[in-house]
């Protein structure tokens, strides 16, 4: 596979590297996923390998200098050599004069963060699988630390622990310090580095890094101990704290996640040993933290207590939960509602590549990959708001001629063959930007309903808005966003509008603004997360939420892709 990636090696000026070069023209069907620690992340197909890959593009507003490019190539080359079962595989790079992309394997089950905290999708997570995940993380990091020279991750968190089709661990974003550094220093805008969830996993000695102190393998051990607690408790560390500075202050004073029975139940296998291991791992003195080799020696007997059937059953239970969620969502929304085969094919007609065409030359402009999601072409996004070709001549502001609906993800899921186009169009009547007869214009209001037409949960949000703004925690906000994205209820642009706000209250206000524009299902998810996160100051909750039998409406769209979205504090 690698030999076909490129002929020869990278050679730009006096710069030479043995890394495989993957021409960007061979990366097709791009699908925007998220913005990662050092740029924009896409899902794509390699046209020759016929396989799905992930593309991580370093976002720069100026060309990369030769010295910087050399540093990037050296780091990427080290990553390429880190071949191990539990390390994500680096296929190569796209090496263009004005941008860098690193091409890796794509993980279909997203991140460990999604598995742990999307409890509607994964209500049960068996102990054998949890212990296997912890064991495989330790195996992967131990391998990195035993390379010559040792490769330090220093950004270990649940968002960077990816899961393959059978929920085996793949560690990602390791050793990319220079990529992250350049992305921050050269990235467009003056926005400071987003601490996101990173401060939760950062050891206290890194709060005020000393230039004289060398990088240490014990940094990763502290992060791993926090991850252990998160996996065993299925809770977000310090979720009640709304300010990263408060977390840092508390950790410096000795505060750590709660290890009582309230957080770590008594039925955890080898509970005392695991607690001892994690408390040693997050101790304030780096020298007192154990090595990953010691962790493996402790974890191996725990994992061996389970046989292959135990792990298979745990994975099967997760897959069944995922299928039940999707089938429940799809029951009122057949696959045919996505788009007719003919319409889908017309979208890509005459496109030789998904990369945008340059206006003057007709050639592909790879720099457009590096735009923020708000500037991304519609072909990159999970949905499209462009009217069909037959409607292009309609008046620009004549929005009353269309019926408002939540946009659907229709680029990544193949349509079920054999259903007539007419049947698709019939099902799409209420779900697409479809022109309505003039006499019905008064009966097709936009999504922003007047207050009397709101459901009970939307009305509850409207009346308690300021209380929600003041009390909703960062953890609850992030869980709400994750749940809405997982069900394709939140447009990517709306997500970016929320997370790019400068303060927590501004983010919550932006999210609540979206509640007014969306359905009762959308509002139900937000209020359900408030209830599940024990925001008791907002009681009483609507009866529909307080009822233990309340379930999400089956009208929610199915999860159609894996997200790897960084948590923003």
From TrEMBL:
A GO BP annotation: positive regulation of cytokine production
Domain Protein kinase span(s) in chain numbering: 27-303
EC numbers for this chain: 2.7.11.1
GO CC terms: cytosol; endoplasmic reticulum; plasma membrane
GO MF terms, alphabetically ordered: ATP binding; JUN kinase kinase kinase activity
Catalytic activity entry: L-seryl-[protein] + ATP = O-phospho-L-seryl-[protein] + ADP + H(+); L-threonyl-[protein] + ATP = O-phospho-L-threonyl-[protein] + ADP + H(+)
A Pfam family the protein falls into: PK_Tyr_Ser-Thr
Keywords, ordered alphabetically: Adaptive immunity, Apoptosis, ATP-binding, Cell membrane, Cytoplasm, Endoplasmic reticulum, Immunity, Innate immunity, Isopeptide bond, Kinase, Membrane, Nucleotide-binding, Phosphoprotein, Serine/threonine-protein kinase, Transferase, Ubl conjugation
Domain CARD residues, every copy: 461-545
Name of protein: Receptor-interacting serine/threonine-protein kinase 2
Top-level taxonomy: Eukaryota, Metazoa, Chordata, Craniata, Vertebrata
């Amino acid at each position: 596979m690698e030999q076909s990636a490129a002929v020869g090696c990278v050679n730009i000026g006096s710069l030479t590297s043995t890394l495989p070069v993957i021409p960007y023209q061979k990366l097709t069907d791009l699908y925007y996923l998220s913005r990662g620690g050092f740029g924009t992340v896409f899902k794509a197909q390699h046209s020759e390998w016929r396989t799905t890959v992930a593309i991580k593009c370093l976002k720069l507003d100026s060309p990369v200098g030769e010295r910087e490019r050399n540093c990037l190539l050296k780091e990427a080359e080290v990553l390429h050599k880190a071949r191990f079962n539990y390390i994500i595989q680096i296929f190569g790079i796209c090496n263009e004069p004005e941008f860098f992309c690193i091409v890796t394997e794509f993980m279909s089950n997203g991140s460990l963060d999604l598995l742990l905290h999307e409890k509607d999708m994964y209500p049960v997570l068996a102990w054998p699988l949890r212990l296997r995940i912890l064991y495989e993380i330790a195996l992967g990091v131990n391998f990195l630390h035993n390379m010559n020279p040792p490769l330090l991750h220093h950004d270990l968190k649940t968002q960077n622990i990816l899961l393959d089709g059978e929920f085996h661990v793949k560690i990602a974003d390791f050793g990319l310090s220079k990529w992250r550094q350049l992305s921050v220093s050269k990235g467009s805008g003056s926005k400071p580095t987003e601490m996101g969830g990173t401060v939760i996993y950062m050891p206290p000695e890194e709060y005020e890094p000393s230039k004289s102190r060398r990088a240490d393998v014990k940094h990763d051990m502290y992060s791993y101990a926090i991850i252990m607690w998160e996996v065993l408790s299925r809770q977000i560390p310090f979720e009640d704290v709304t300010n990263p500075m408060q977390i840092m202050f508390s950790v410096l004073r000795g505060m750590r996640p709660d290890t009582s029975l309230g957080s770590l139940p008594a039925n955890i296998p080898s509970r005392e040993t695991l607690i001892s291991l994690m408390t040693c791992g997050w101790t304030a003195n780096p020298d007192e933290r154990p090595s990953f080799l010691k962790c493996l020696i402790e974890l191996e007997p725990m994992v061996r207590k389970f046989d292959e059937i135990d792990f298979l059953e745990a994975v099967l239970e997760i897959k069944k939960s995922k299928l039940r969620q999707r089938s429940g969502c799809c029951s009122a929304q057949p696959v045919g509602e996505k788009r007719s085969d003919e319409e889908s094919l017309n979208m890509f007609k005459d496109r030789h590549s998904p990369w945008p065409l340059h206006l003057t030359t007709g050639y592909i402009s790879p720099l457009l990959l590096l735009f923020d999601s708000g500037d991304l072409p519609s072909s990159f996004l999970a949905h499209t708001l462009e009217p069909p070709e037959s409607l292009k001549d309609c008046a620009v502001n004549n929005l009353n001629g269309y019926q408002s609906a939540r946009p659907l993800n229709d680029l990544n899921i193949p349509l079920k063959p054999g259903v007539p186009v007419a049947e698709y169009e019939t099902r799409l009547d209420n779900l697409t930007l479809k022109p309505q007869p003039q006499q019905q214009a008064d009966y097709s209001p936009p999504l922003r309903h007047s207050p009397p037409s709101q459901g009970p949960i939307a009305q509850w949000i409207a009346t308690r808005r300021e209380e929600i703004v003041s009390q909703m925690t960062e953890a609850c906000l992030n869980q709400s966003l994750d749940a809405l994205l997982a069900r394709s209820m939140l447009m990517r642009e709306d997500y970016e509008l929320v997370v790019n706000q400068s303060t927590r209250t501004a983010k919550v206000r932006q999210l609540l603004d979206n509640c007014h524009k969306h359905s009762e299902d959308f509002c139900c998810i937000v209020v359900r997360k408030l209830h599940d996160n024990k925001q008791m100051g907002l009681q009483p909750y609507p009866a529909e939420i307080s009822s233990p039998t309340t379930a999400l409406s089956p009208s929610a769209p199915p999860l159609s892709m894996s997200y790897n979205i960084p948590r923003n504090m």
